[in-house]
Design brief:
Number of domains: 1
Organism: Bacillus solimangrovi
GO molecular function: iron ion binding; iron-sulfur cluster binding
Family: Belongs to the NifU family.
Number of helices: 4
Largest sheet: 3 strands, antiparallel
Structural class: alpha+beta
Order of helices and strands: HEEEHHH
Strand content: 15-25%
Low-confidence stretches: none
Strand order of the largest sheet: 1-2-3
CATH architecture: Alpha-Beta Complex
CATH topology: Sufe protein. Chain: A
Protein name: SUF system NifU family Fe-S cluster assembly protein
Mean pLDDT: 92
Radius of gyration: 15 Å
Pfam families: NifU_N
CATH class: Alpha Beta
Number of strands: 3
Length: 149
């Protein structure tokens, strides 16, 4: 393994741990209009996602829950990335993230993955993919349920 890959892996681990120790958008929303509870029974991770959807946009988002560093960091990164986006853009980002986790080709040219890229190494550990995708699945479920109301 080249020193570049080792340094990149180390940087990614630091980004993941930073989000775990200093979560962004953690908490609840008083004026949310979508609340989704999801868990990963395999490992015990659980999340409650709060979305405030207005005029087709994610006006605000928070999460609460408990779990491993990967699931909680992923939730923190996701909330940072989707806040202020059109719902369709957030769902497109979720699809790109899912493809990245499954080690599929993905189109990131018009999306800024930011810190989310730090999670791409998780795809090498199939047992941890559900941890990384938990918050994203909650987003998809929440938007879907809102659309059906």
């Amino acid at each position: 393994m080249s020193s570049y890959n080792v340094n990149l892996d180390q940087l990614y681990r630091q980004v993941i741990m930073d989000h775990y120790k200093n979560p962004r958008n953690r908490g609840t929303l008083e004026d949310d209009n979508v609340t989704i509870d999801m868990n990963n029974p395999t490992c015990g991770d659980r999340i409650q996602l709060h979305l405030k959807l207005e005029d087709g946009k994610i006006a605000d988002v928070k999460y609460d829950g408990e779990g491993c560093s990967i699931s909680m960091s992923s939730a923190s990164m996701m909330t940072q990335a989707i806040k202020g986006l059109e719902v369709e853009e957030a769902l497109k980002l979720s699809k790109v993230f899912s493809d990245m986790m499954q080690d599929k080709e993905y189109d990131e040219e018009d999306l800024d993955l930011g810190d989310i890229e730090a999670l791409q190494g998780v795809s090498k550990f199939p047992a941890r993919i559900k941890c990384a995708t938990l918050a994203w699945k909650a987003l998809e479920k929440g938007v879907s349920e809102q659309d059906n109301n």
